[in-house]
Each structure stands twice: as C-alpha cells, then as structure tokens.
Write a structure and sequence with these properties.
There is one protein chain. By secondary structure, the chain is of the alpha+beta class. It has four domains: about 110 residues, PAS domain (Beta-Lactamase, 2-Layer Sandwich), CATH 3.30.450.20; about 170 residues, Beta-Lactamase (2-Layer Sandwich); about 160 residues, Histidine kinase-like ATPase, C-terminal domain (Heat Shock Protein 90, 2-Layer Sandwich), CATH 3.30.565.10; about 120 residues, Response regulator (Rossmann fold, 3-Layer(aba) Sandwich), CATH 3.40.50.2300. It contains 19 helices and 24 strands. The strands form six sheets. It has a five-stranded antiparallel beta sheet. A hairpin with a 2-residue loop joins β9 and β10. α5 runs antiparallel to α9 and α9 crosses α15. The longest helix is centred in the middle third of the chain and has 64 residues. The relative contact order is 0.06.
Length: about 675
C-alpha cells in the first residue's frame, strides 16, 4: 500500500509537471506552492511567488472584491472546473495584463489549489469568430438594403437581424423628419406595442431628436455610461418595462439626425468595441437606405406633380381661350348697351364671374409653373416684417405668431409678391389647423447645399423659409396628396384645395423646392428653399407706353380658335386698326409675302399642328426684318423659343385680356419698330 510520502511525491510530481500554471493558497490568501509554469506565466523568478498574497496577481481594482470572494469560497470549499466560472484578468510582474480562466479545488485543511490558464489565444479566436459572424450579418444587412422595396419593410427585417447579431434582447428603429421634434418608433424586434408607445413618449419628453442632432461625436450613446443622466424619461420608461441599458446611434441625414437605432438589454452590458462598431455600421447602412427611400418617394411625387402640372396647365390654357371669348363679348356688350339699366346689371354680374374664373386659372397656372414671374433680389427680413402686422390681424388673437430672421440672411431671388402670397397661404393653412389657437412660427435661414444633397437642386446657397405650427397635423395619407390641386380636407365651400399647389408651383418655377413634414397631433412643418440673389442685379427700368396713334396701322391676327380670333378682330377695329386674319402659321406667312402693308403681327402662342407663335415670329422676321410682333397666350412663357423671342422685343399679353390692355400692348409693340 502506498505511503503518505509516496502520495506527496506523486502530488508534487503532478503539480510540477502540470501543463497549466498552478498555485496553492492558504486560508490567509498567501501562496504556499507555485509550479514553474506559474512562475513563467506571471513573470517571476523561481520561488518568488511563495509568500505573495494571491490578490497581487490581479488588477488593483479587482483585489478587494476578490478578497470577499475568496473568504466565501474558503467558508464553503468545492471543486470548480476550468471554464465553469467567469474570466479574470491576470497581472504579470512587469504590470502587463492577460485574460485567464481558473479552476479551484480544496487540498487539505484551509488550503485550495488554483489551476490558471492564459486564454489570450482562445479569446482572440473567439473574437475572430464573433467578428466573422457579424461580418456575415453585415453582408445579410447589405443584401436587405439593396433588395428592400421601401425603408419601412427594411426596418422590420433589420430589427430582428441586429438583435440576433448583437445578442441583445430588443432592437428598435425610430425615424422622424429632418429637424423634427418627434421620433416615433417605426419598427422593433422583441418589444410589445405598449413598450414602443411608452418609449416614443419618453423620447418626445426628453427631446431625443434634438439631442441626437446636437451630438458631434460619432458612435453609440450608451445610457449606462451617461453619468449626467440627460435622458430621465427614457431611463424611467426602460426601467418600467424591465430594460436596464440601451445603446443609441443616430441615423444621420448628412449634418442632422433623422432617427435612431436602439439596442436594448434587460441586463447592464459592457458594449465592447466590436458591438459598437457593428451597431454604427448597421446604423449607417440603415440611414443610407432611409435616405434612398425618401429620395425615390420625392422623385415619384415630383413626377406625379409634374404630370398633374401639365394636365392643369393644358386645362388652364383652354379655359383661358374660353374666358377670352366670354370676357371679350361682355366688353363688346358693355360698350353697346352701357346705357341700358337691366343690361348693365347682367353684364356686371357676368364680368365678376369671369374675374373669379381668371383668378382660378392663375392658380392653376401657378401650380403648373406656366405663369410669368418677375423675380428680383428681396430681403427675407423685409418680407417677414411686412407680413407681421398683416398676419396678426388676419389670423386672430388666438394664434401667436413668431417671426425670426437674422439680418445676415442674404437676399432671395424670387417674385416678392408671389413669395408673400405663398407664405400667407401657408399661414392661413396653419390657422385652419389650429381651431383652438396655437403657435405659428415663420423663420428664414441661410442653407448651403452640397453636391450630394437630395431634391434635385444644384449645389449652392439657398434661403430656407420655415413655417411651423402646433396644429392638428396630417396623416401620411393626407400628406401624400397635400400638394395636389383641388385636394382639400376642409368642408365643402371652405377651401379650393389650391393653396399648397400654388406654393409648390411658385417655388419650383423659382428654382427651389418644398418639403412638408407633419404628424397627427404634432403640427406641420413646411420648408421652402429658394436660391439667393446674385451679388449685383441688373434690373432694367420699366417702360411706360408712349402715345402712339394707331391711325390705320394694319395688324395680322393669327389665332386658331375662331371665337377668340373674332373677339380680337372686334377689339382691334374698335381701337382703330385695320386687320387681316389667319387661322394658322402657314396662312400667316403667305399673307406676309403678299401684303407688304402689314405693320404688326399679333399671334397666339399655341397655334396647333405642332407650330407656335414664337417660331412664327422668327420666320416672319426672316421675310420682314424688324417686324413688330405681339403674342398672347394662357401658357405665357412655357413654350420653346419664348426666351429668345422675348429678348428680341416681342411682347407677351396674358389671356384673357381687356380691350385697353390690348391697346397698350399694341402701342408698346409698335414703338419697337426700327427707326
């Protein structure tokens, strides 16, 4: 039977030759035995570990906790195999650290043996494996980004994918609007609807959207590391629903946050560098997908509006021709029956109806961007100052109006009257959305657009007008149609549905863009971007028509609509002109070749058969250089060749026109005659 001495020799042999570092610790925590592997692992000379307190092999910050743990273990000793406990950090004699795993075993009275293994390589392998797995998840995320039909479906798929990749309890995606105050949660994985609602309310109370926009340091915002406690409502909401920690990464739209990616956990996390990097990459990919989706939506919306613009512009043109006939005949009747009382009343009533129709077609042409503008440099501060008193009187005492425009905001290049009308239309819409009163804020700021900006605008400086209200807001369904003509949510008779469409048409025709953001119960925010004025403007002085006596000047009238042509001829005869008539461009050119007495060409712009008045003027002046010309149209300046013709002294008269307006335009055209 082996003796105790033999057992001791066997133990020492095994102790000395064990592949792992081993130490034996007594009840006081001193090392009483250490094998050569322990000396090498911790960087000590042979025998130097003996008598050393075992806590000296741990980082200073962990020593106090280890003393308490050691006392508990000695009170209830038990065998703990390698890998069953948690990982520790070892400290070598030179101060360097390394990760280690420890197995514990009682050996005799008041002593225990600790087997220690350096797991640096194991840990690196684990990290490499985790990184490889996360790379696979990122590849899958990239596939989803490319294949997703819209950012909504993408967010739903992404939430579950990120939660699995990071090993967290829940992931949520909150997406708002650029510069918006709200940050609603659009999709989530692992969270019940009531939790989503509670978190969304907490985001609003803490102003998370604004705080994310203020963060200049990229990366995740870890709640457990936020010593200042800047999000108390979010913390309380998390705690109330069993969540202890959150990592929040903003979804950036260039220089501002439009949403956030949130990883949520029920237990506090360390959020290592790999997790943070993965979360940031996922947020970047998701933000890019959201931006792409919005750009596609904006493009499709712009295309729909452009198609509507072409339709409404064509309707307005045809309607203007009809109004020219109606208005012209009313003017003729007015001249002939001015002294008849009953006739006078009927003519005035019909004329007022025509005027209302004219205003309607002007709005349609504004939406279709086919109405002439007179842009010039105008200071936004001046526009807002002039609006202030008027809005205060118009909107009523229950609407508090705030105007904000720093003096340094440069001049904007736009038609001042149309710009003021656009802002008034937006203000009236805001008033209607606040029946019980509220806040209306109109501000102007300088915006610099880079080469990669969305919206189809060229890079450069723009002035951004913001009209914000605290009203009822709009649902997404209403928002999708808000800019379309005749679309309105107001009761019958209380709105034409053309206010926002006019704003859209004016801004687009002025080289800008309109962006509307709204949510039910959270108000509406409309941003108008318009180009800044050039540093020096060359503005010609307005001409005053001279006193030209028409005499028997001969005018060639070219108009494909017989009714309109008849009215024009009657007007010209009443003004003292001699006339010739043509229904198309070909007949007009034949008359110009035949009759050298024609002194002025008066033509419609749209002549049918693919020809137009601008081309007719060009061909006519090849036959008769310097021939005075006057054009008329309901389209105004939308036809090819308009700019060239207008620069060469061709006047443009808007339909429907009055007889005195026609006379003044003809006088100006004849003044352009050479010599």
């Amino acid at each position: 039977m082996p003796s105790r001495a033999d057992d001791n020799d066997l133990f020492r042999t095994l102790f000395e030759t064990a592949p792992d570092a081993m130490v034996v610790v007594d009840a006081a925590g001193d090392i009483v035995l250490a094998n050569p592997q322990a000396d090498r692992l911790f960087g000590y000379a042979p025998g130097a570990l003996l008598g050393l307190r075992v806590e000296n092999l741990l980082p200073e910050a962990a020593r106090a906790a280890h003393v308490a743990y050691r006392a508990g273990y000695m009170a209830h000793p038990r065998t703990r195999p390698m890998g069953a406990g948690y990982e520790l950090t070892g400290v070598r004699r030179d101060g360097s650290t390394f990760p280690m795993e420890i197995a514990l075993s009682p050996v005799g009275s008041g002593r225990y043996a600790a087997s220690i293994r350096d797991i640096s390589e194991t840990q690196r392998a684990r990290q490499a494996l985790r990184r490889a797995q996360r790379d696979g998840y990122l590849a899958e995320l990239g596939r989803l980004v490319l294949e997703a039909g819209n950012d909504g479906s993408l967010r739903v798929a992404v939430s579950g994918l990120i939660a699995t990749a990071m090993g967290v309890d829940a992931v949520a995606v909150a997406v708002g609007l650029p510069g918006g105050k709200a940050l609603p949660i659009r999709s989530a994985s692992g969270l019940a609807p009531d939790v989503l609602d509670a978190l969304a309310d907490a985001f609003a109370r803490d102003g998370l959207a604004a705080r994310l926009g203020e963060r200049h340091v990229p990366g995740a915002w870890i709640l457990s590391e936020d010593a200042a406690g800047t999000l108390p409502a979010v913390r309380a909401a998390l705690k109330a629903h069993g969540l202890s920690d959150a990592a929040i990464v903003p979804l950036l739209d260039r220089h501002e946050a439009t949403g956030a990616l949130l990883a949520l956990n029920r237990k506090p996390c360390e959020w290592d560098a790999d997790q943070r990097a993965f979360l940031q990459l996922a947020a970047n990919m998701l933000a890019a997908a959201v931006l792409r989706g919005r750009s596609q939506e904006q493009l499709a919306h712009a295309q729909r509006l452009d198609a509507l613009g072409q339709l409404t512009g064509g309707i307005a043109h045809d309607f203007n021709n009809l109004l020219t006939v109606v208005s012209g005949n009313l003017q003729i009747l007015d001249a002939e029956y001015a002294g008849v009382g009953d006739a006078r009343e009927l003519i005035d009533s019909a004329s007022r109806a025509v005027d209302r129709c004219i205003n309607l077609t002007r709005k349609l042409l504004g939406f279709s961007r086919r109405r002439a503008l007179a842009p010039r440099g105008v200071r936004p501060q001046q526009i807002l100052d002039e609006l202030g008193d008027m809005l205060a009187r118009t909107l009523g005492a229950r609407i508090h109006v705030e105007l904000d425009c720093p003096a340094r905001v440069p001049a904007v290049f736009a038609d001042p009257g149309e710009l003021e009308t656009a802002l008034v239309n937006l203000a009236i819409n805001a008033r209607d959305a606040m029946p019980d009163g509220g806040l209306l804020r109109i501000s102007a700021r300088l915006r610099e657009l880079g080469a990669g900006e969305t919206g189809g605008l060229p890079p450069g400086q723009y002035v951004a007008f913001l009209v914000e209200d605290s009203g009822t807001g709009m649902t997404q369904e209403v928002l999708d149609h808000a800019l379309e003509p005749f679309f309105t949510t107001k009761d019958a008779g209380k709105g034409s549905g053309l206010g926002l469409s006019m704003v859209y048409g004016f801004v687009r025709q002025s080289g800008g863009r309109v962006v509307i953001g709204s949510q039910p119960g959270r108000g509406t925010r409309v941003e108008i971007l318009l180009p800044t004025a050039p540093p020096v403007e060359e503005i010609g002085e307005a001409r005053t028509p001279g006193s030209v006596t028409p005499g028997h000047a001969r005018v060639l009238v070219v108009e494909d609509e017989p009714g309109v042509r008849k009215v024009a001829v009657r007007f010209l005869h009443a003004l003292g002109y001699d006339t010739l008539e043509a229904a198309d461009a070909q007949r007009a050119l034949e008359l110009l070749r035949i009759d050298r007495g024609i002194q002025l060409l008066f033509s419609d712009v749209a002549l049918g058969n693919g020809s137009n008045g601008f081309e007719l003027v060009r061909e006519a002046r090849r036959l008769r250089p310097g021939l005075p010309a006057l054009l008329t149209s309901g389209y105004e300046r939308s036809t090819d060749g308009a700019d060239e013709a207008l620069q060469s002294g061709v006047g443009l008269l808007r339909k429907p026109y009055r007889r005195d307006q026609l006379g003044e335009a003809l006088a100006l055209a004849l003044e352009e005659r050479p010599g």
